[in-house]
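Record now logged for everyone:
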Amino acid sequence: MGIIQRQGIRGALASYLGVVIGTFNVLWLYPKLLQPNEIGLLRGLADFAAIVVPFVVLGASPVCIRYFPMFKDEARGNNGFLSLLLLVPLIGFTLFAVFLFLTLGWLQDFFAAKSALFSSYLYLALPLCFCMMYYTVLESYSRSLHKIVVPAFINEVLVRLGILTTVTVYVGFNISQSGLLYGYVCVYALALLLIIAYIHYLKQWQTPLYIDAKVIKKIPEMGNYAFFVLLGSVGAMIVGKIDSLMVIKMV
């Protein structure tokens, strides 16, 4: 059995285990320990970030999968391709942060009419989007290196176990609602740190960061590819998540 096949099987097992833990969280843990408005708050925050992330990533993930083989060269640090993958989402995130800063009052008013709770914690979308954004990109980078298992285990298993632990601590130690949400964001921050550490372990992290001329020449082509991939995927994703944002208004 080849390396890719073994990685695929182990990655699938991690995903199945994650489904089991996620199902337990949603069907038993949340209804048992949380109030309906708290469940809606967690889901709403996650879905809000899930809608934003594909935009702020600016297509870096599909570009990584498509173009990494072209630039792969360990002797030359993969021609600085990772630096580009880190820079592009940072630009998108900066634009989103400016947008959120300028429209925060309006967004809070929009949700406050029927969801003052979500409105008061909307600012947490910023760090959550940052963590999810870079995790998405680095997971794609890891997959391009044919390393599937660890990123899948972190995202599918450890994140769900982290949320389970956060909710249990929230109820068991009677911490504040703010503590629950901060803990929720910290779970994703920890996942990001773990995948960064894993890429360091693989000796695939670039220090210092740079972008080779070979990569720079391909930026227009990669940008065009990213644009059309974004057009093709974002619509379906929004349709799948927009109902959650409507529910938020009733939280």
